[in-house]
Amino acid sequence: MSYPGAAYDESWLNFVAPTDYVNPTPGGRYHLVVIGAGTAGLISAIGAAGLGARVALIERHRLGGDCLNVGCVPSKALLEFTAHNAQPRFDEAFEWLRRVRADIAPHDSVARYSELGVDVFLGDARFVSRDAVEVDGLRIEGRRFAICTGASAAVPPIPGLAQAQPLTNETVFDLQEQPESIGILGAGAIGCELAQVFARLGVAVHLFEMAPRVLPLESEAASAVVAEALVDAGVTLHLGQAVSAVEDGAICCGEVHTPVARILVALGRKPNTQGLSLPLAGVNVTERGFVQVDHKLRTTNQHIFAAGDCATPVQFTHHADAQARVVVQNALFAPTARADGLVVPHCTYTQPEVASVGESRASLESNGEAFDAYRVDFAELDRGRATPGAAGFAEVYTRKGKDTILGASIVGPDAGEQLALVVLLMSNGLGLAAAGKTIFSYPTRAEFLKRLANEYNRTRLTPTASRMFARWFDFTGA
User: Fold this and answer.
1) Which tens digit of pLDDT belongs to each residue from 435-473?
2) What is the distance between the alpha carbons of residues 461 and 468, in angstroms, rounded to a whole number?
3) pLDDT digit string, tens, across residues 81-99
4) Class of domain 6-153+270-332 as given by CATH
5) Contacts of 116 (CB under 8 A, 6+ apart)
6) Could you tell me which CATH number the domain at 352-463 has?
7) Which of 175, 171, 222, 220 has its CA nearest to residue 201?
8) Section 200-207 average pLDDT
9) 162-267 adopts what CATH topology?
């Protein structure tokens, strides 16, 4: 069947799941066997192979995992396309996402990894012992294993929902025709991003969230800014009440029934740990289904590691990348790398963006931790004054009386880019005062960090210091 971007989809699939591919003959005992070719698996495999290790990589679906195929790449392609076109059309937007995905696919392809010395196996893997798995009738033995099987969309048992054949992030990018309306369950990052996308494309969007606000894990101030942007885009918000049922094409919240043409579920993800026969390998899972790991990402079988979305509820591509590097070190060499001290930022790519790292104001208050908060509105910066409609803010939290950064929240254009400055400081053990020694280009939004550093430095001018300065100036005269 022909649809916008069909040729790009054919190219994409030929790279990440070639139908004519024949699995190689296992090459003896591997140094590392990686199960799952999402971000964590790909980085583990290519990192180990680059060091000279014999590596096997197993994937049951498509190389690239959620990020390339049904996550970051297609969603951000749609967000960028709809943001930069005054009257974006559905066909053009979805053709663009398929083109972008196909252009990136060679980087995660079967051919590329094979050329780099990785033995790639396509098929379902299951452990048959503590040091071997089976794939498509082939026995693959390894000195070390890395379970990187990712996660999949969670669909709750709401009456009538399954019968409505809801979309998830795994199927929404397969749409070939524009729906007249769509109901999105869940106003987290995925729900808010796609609500804004579909609204820009002219779809009637209803966004449902049982919490009293969108982005409930972000600050109230950030939620308020994004909620206003969604409403301005035409999204109808249904907040503070759980969806009770889906009946006759309508989403039911209490007595209110909202008819929609399609439903998109964006209510979190569940780890992919079923079907691996983990008990045969001596690998335990938690009550929530995650592979149980320690701070070095070792499972209950010390020769088997796990990384990425199957092993942690902090499910971001960049976190999986960082964990994979810990796995490579600990699986192939002395297990000295740790994953428990990683500074992991996250960003919601709505317009405006919302980016955070470390502790939030709410978490600090609930923990009873004393802290100082430094905030600047982007409209107060000269770059903001020169930008029509400038909105957003940056807020940094430090340990009380010190410049040690505990966390930060930024709302505004390119918030994810701006947050990188804070993440760099935190990752290198540098405090807010270090930004005061840095020269930033003028005028830029990045100057927010200089402004906040100056605010901190002013707190150091104690009454005692002021008296000492006064005596000095009296002594030196005019």
Assistant:
1) 999 999 999 989 999 999 999 988 877 778 778 878 877
2) 10
3) 999 999 999 999 999 999 9
4) alpha beta
5) 46, 49, 50
6) 3.30.390.30
7) 175
8) 98
9) FAD/NAD(P)-binding domain (3.50.50)
